[in-house]
Specification:
The chain is an alpha/beta fold. It has helices spanning about 15-20, 45-55, 70-75, 80-95, 130-135, 140-150, 160-165, 165-175, 180-200, 225-235, 245-250, 255-265, 295-305, 335-355, and strands at about 1-5, 30, 60-65, 100-105, 115-120, 125-130, 200-205, 240-245, 270, 275, 285, 310-315. It is about 40% helix and about 15% strand. Strand 10 (about 275) and strand 11 form a beta hairpin. The two termini are about 20 Å apart. The protein binds D-mannose (DNO).
Length: about 350
C-alpha cells in the first residue's frame, strides 16, 4: 500500500505540504494542474514546476487526479480526435516526469454529485450528503446553484466553462445512451492506451459517483458488471481502475469487499472511505471507521492486505471537524484520521499474514 494524499496546489488548497508531511505513512501527493481548461495540453514546464515543488517536500508525484476528459470525447463528436491528440500529448509529458497513474472519469456533464456539502452529523461535524428526494425534485441548474453557493472554491469536475454550456450539453447527450457511451469510452481507450504503455503510465478510471443515472444522463461505471466490461475493452496493463469504495459503495448492492477481491489486481489506485446509507436511498459521508458507515472497510483492507496490494491508496472525502474551514470533503483533519485508521487495519492484517 503506497499511501498518498490529494492536494489541490499552492494557493488553491487550505492544506499545506508541511502539514501533510506530519501524517504518518504518506509517501506521495495526488495532484493535478487544476487551473488548466479541460482539453488543453499540459505543458512540460508547468508539470515540471509542480512535480519539483511536491518532490522538494520529499513526496513522490506519481499519481495525477485527474486529467479530465473533454465532453467531445464522451459525446464522440467531430472534435474528439483533436482532444484525444491533446490527451496523448499530456500523457507523454506526464510520463517524462515520472507519473505512473492517471485517474480519470467518464461521467457525462457532472462529476460527483451531492445535494448538501455541509450536512450536520450528530457529532457536531458536517459532511457531504446526498438526499434522494431533493435530487429527484430539482433540475441541473438548481443543483449548480447549490454547489456554487455552498463553496467559494471551484470544485473539480465543475469547471466554470462547462457550467455555462449546461443546456447545450444536455441537448447533445439526448443522442447518447449507455451503449453509445461505452463505444465512445472504447474508442478513447484504444487510442490512448498504446501511448500510456510507451510512457509507463496506467489509466485508472474512477467509478461514477453516485453510481446511478442522474437527470437522464447515462452513467456506465456503476457496478461490478461495469468494471468487468471496462476490462474487456482492452487487455493492456495500462487499462486500469480506481477502486473507489465510497462511490460504488453508496449503492448497497455493490459489495465492496467482494469487488476488492476481484478487481484489486487491476486497480493501480484506491480511494478508501465510508458512507452511511439510509433506507430511503439518502447517504452521508461519515468518518472512515467501519462501524460509523455502511461499507465494510475492515473487509476491504483485509482483502487488499491478503493480495499484498502495492498500489497507491488515498483516504477520501472526510467530514469537516474541529471547525476546519476547507474545501468540501477535503480538509486535513478527518482525512488524516482516516489514514491512521487505514494504517492500523493494514498493519494488523499484514502482520497476521506474516505470522500465518
Ligand atoms: C471526488 C473525486 C472525484 C474524482 C474524479 C476522477 O472527490 O473522487 O472528483 O477525482 O471523478 O476523475
Amino acid at each position: 500500500m503506497n499511501m498518498t494524499f490529494r492536494w489541490y496546489g499552492r494557493g488553491n488548497d487550505t492544506v499545506t505540504l508541511d502539514q501533510i508531511k506530519q501524517i504518518p505513512s504518506v509517501k506521495g501527493i495526488v495532484w493535478a494542474l487544476h487551473e488548466k481548461p479541460v482539453g488543453d495540453v499540459w505543458m512540460k514546464e508547468e508539470i515540471k514546476e509542480e512535480v519539483e515543488y511536491i518532490q522538494s517536500y520529499g513526496f513522490h508525484a506519481e499519481v495525477v487526479e485527474s486529467v479530465n476528459i473533454h465532453e467531445s470525447i464522451k459525446l464522440g463528436n467531430h472534435e474528439r480526435n483533436q482532444y484525444i491528440e491533446n490527451y496523448k500529448q499530456t500523457i507523454r509529458h506526464l510520463g517524462e516526469f515520472g507519473v505512473k497513474v492517471i485517474c480519470y472519469n467518464f461521467m457525462p456533464v457532472f462529476d460527483w454529485i451531492r445535494t448538501d456539502l455541509y450536512h450536520p452529523l450528530p457529532d457536531g461535524s458536517t459532511a457531504l450528503f446526498y438526499e434522494k428526494q431533493k435530487l429527484d425534485s430539482i433540475g441541473p441548474n438548481e443543483l449548480i446553484d447549490i454547489f456554487s453557493s455552498a463553496s467559494t472554491m471551484t470544485l473539480p469536475g465543475w469547471e466554470p466553462e462547462k457550467l455555462g454550456r449546461i443546456q447545450e450539453l444536455f441537448e447533445a447527450y439526448k443522442e447518447i445512451d449507455e451503449e453509445k457511451l461505452w463505444e465512445n469510452l472504447g474508442y478513447f481507450l484504444n487510442e490512448v492506451l498504446p501511448v500510456c504503455e510507451e510512457a509507463g503510465i496506467q489509466m485508472a478510471i474512477h467509478p461514477d459517483d453516485p453510481p446511478w443515472s442522474l437527470f437522464g444522463l447515462p452513467r456506465i461505471l456503476t457496478s461490478e458488471e461495469g468494471l468487468k466490461r471496462l476490462l474487456t475493452i482492452s487487455d493492456s496493463p495500462a487499462n486500469g481502475i480506481t477502486f473507489c469504495t465510497g462511490s460504488l459503495g453508496s449503492n448497497p448492492r455493490n459489495d465492496m469487499e467482494a469487488i476488492a477481491c476481484k478487481f484489486a489486481n487491476r486497480s493501480p489506485f484506491a480511494h478508501i472511505r465510508n458512507v452511511k446509507i439510509y433506507e430511503n436511498g439518502d447517504f452521508i459521508e461519515t468518518s472512515h471507521l467501519t462501524s460509523d458507515g455502511s461499507i465494510n472497510l475492515i473487509g476491504v483492507v483485509k482483502s487488499l492486505a491478503e493480495q499484498n496490494y502495492s498500489g497507491y491508496v488515498r483516504p477520501d472525502h472526510g467530514r469537516h471537524i474541529w471547525k476546519e474551514q476547507c474545501r468540501p470533503g477535503y480538509g486535513l483533519y478527518d482525512r488524516a484520521l482516516g489514514i491512521m485508521y487505514l494504517n492500523g487495519l493494514w498493519d494488523a492484517f499484514t502482520s497476521i499474514n506474516k505470522e500465518g
